[in-house]
Q: What sequence folds into this?
């Protein structure tokens, strides 16, 4: 459990210990994660560099089922941490048991690629463009504005009425205004923060920077698989690195179709538009089991099936978009003639690309509790109203002009802070008081009332409209 703010009462502490909690005073460090020096690819745009506050908001958005029309589906429903942010199902389940047309791609190391486009068919020009498209899909999350669905503006209205988003958007962007651009930036930052560089391969490369040399921590079979992966077919290899260059193992942006042209749920339809691939890192779990079926149509259920496919590319005249690296002279397709031992060596090598932290690290975990609740805490947000020993009421909330503090006669100090800790108002009162807040900008504020006789405090968060 991360540290809890000092002024939270015992009752508040007990609540936090059983609830999902975001501590704004103790954020996870997304900005300065350890990235090996040999990793040089990065598709993060200069306009949306990873920021702890915004990425924290992105984590909440990623896991929040309120982003679907009927509150049953989140981004994380189809991209699950336990499976390297993929789905063990062939088709992910969306609204009303509708399913996706393609398998949900693993999101691990999405940032570390020369390819900037997203989706299997690269229809999204950037990750920022991609992250809200499933939300606006009729079958996936339901804010499509078609088929009787609400549209994205309805989602913005919905999120604006949720108290924790008033806090988080203010914290991330300096104001409570919610729009698609802010949602896109936050979700993209969270997805780009998901990284995996603690694999057996990374240990080997750190000890032996020459990719072509044997790794001392590899078995002979794994080293054989590495050489087969790196070397092109004319040199006795499989040529995998021609499209999936190490050490990022991302997809070459110029890659065309890989020979898999199936469509989920159909034996006759074909799809030639699938030219993207996720990183080859974390294809399997640490226990060696697949993180979900492979290829856009989920048609392959083992790494050996994948190797067999590239060993003998189908010669299908209907595939008019086959990558030229998989073609051979005379209208022929790639035939590698790998032996069983070589195929197994390639499988063993691919398994060395799996890390461990990605599956359990809290930095990428669900911030909501089992009941779907979340608490936002921090020195400026914490409340100890449970131990304030005098009857008190503060209303209305949200407030437009006048805020009423209803309290028995006594001596009190009233202080209002912004979420960044700036003091906005500081005055003493002697009992019930109506305060004109017209001079405050729209946003989220903290009201702190100190009983000057007992020194007890009452803290309350309120929204100024």
A:
């Amino acid at each position: 459990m991360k540290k809890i703010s000092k002024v939270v009462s015992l009752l508040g502490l007990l609540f936090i210990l059983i609830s999902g909690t975001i501590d704004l005073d103790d954020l996870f460090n997304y900005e300065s994660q350890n990235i090996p020096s040999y990793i040089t690819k990065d598709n993060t745009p200069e306009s949306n560099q990873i920021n702890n506050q915004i990425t924290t908001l992105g984590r909440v958005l990623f896991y929040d089922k309120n982003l679907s029309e009927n509150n049953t589906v989140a981004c994380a429903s189809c991209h699950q941490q336990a499976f390297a942010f993929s789905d063990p199902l062939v088709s992910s389940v969306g609204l009303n048991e509708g399913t996706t047309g393609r398998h949900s791609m693993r999101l691990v190391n999405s940032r570390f690629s020369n390819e900037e486009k997203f989706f299997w068919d690269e229809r999204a020009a950037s990750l920022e463009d991609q992250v809200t498209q499933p939300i606006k899909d009729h079958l996936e999350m339901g804010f499509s504005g078609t088929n009787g669905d609400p549209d994205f503006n309805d989602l913005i209205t919905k999120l604006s009425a949720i108290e924790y988003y008033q806090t988080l958007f203010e914290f991330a962007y300096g104001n409570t205004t919610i729009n698609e651009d802010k949602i896109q930036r936050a979700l993209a930052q969270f997805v780009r923060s998901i990284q995996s560089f603690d694999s057996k391969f990374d240990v080997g490369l750190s000890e032996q920077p020459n990719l072509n040399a044997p790794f001392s921590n590899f078995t002979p079979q794994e080293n054989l698989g590495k050489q087969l992966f790196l070397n092109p077919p004319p040199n006795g290899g499989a040529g995998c690195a021609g499209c999936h260059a190490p050490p990022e193992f991302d997809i070459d942006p110029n890659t065309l179709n890989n020979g898999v042209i199936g469509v989920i749920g159909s034996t006759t339809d074909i799809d030639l538009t699938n030219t993207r691939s996720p990183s080859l890192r974390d294809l399997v779990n640490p226990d060696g089991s697949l993180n979900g079926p492979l290829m856009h149509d989920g048609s392959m259920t083992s790494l050996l099936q994948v190797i067999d496919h590239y060993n003998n590319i189908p010669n299908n005249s209907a595939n008019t978009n086959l990558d030229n690296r998989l073609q051979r002279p005379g209208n022929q397709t790639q035939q590698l003639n790998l032996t069983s031992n070589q195929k197994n060596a390639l499988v063993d090598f691919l398994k060395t690309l799996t890390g461990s932290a990605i599956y359990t690290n809290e930095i990428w975990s669900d911030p909501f509790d089992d009941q779907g609740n979340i608490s936002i805490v921090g020195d400026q947000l914490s409340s100890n109203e449970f131990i304030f020993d005098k009857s008190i009421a503060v209303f209305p909330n949200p407030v437009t002009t006048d805020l009423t503090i209803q309290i028995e006669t006594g001596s009190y100090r009233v202080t209002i802070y912004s979420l960044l800790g700036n003091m906005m108002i500081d005055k003493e009162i002697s009992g019930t008081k109506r305060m004109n807040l017209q001079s405050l900008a729209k946003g989220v504020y903290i009201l702190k009332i100190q009983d000057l006789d007992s020194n007890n405090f009452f803290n309350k968060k309120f929204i100024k409209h």
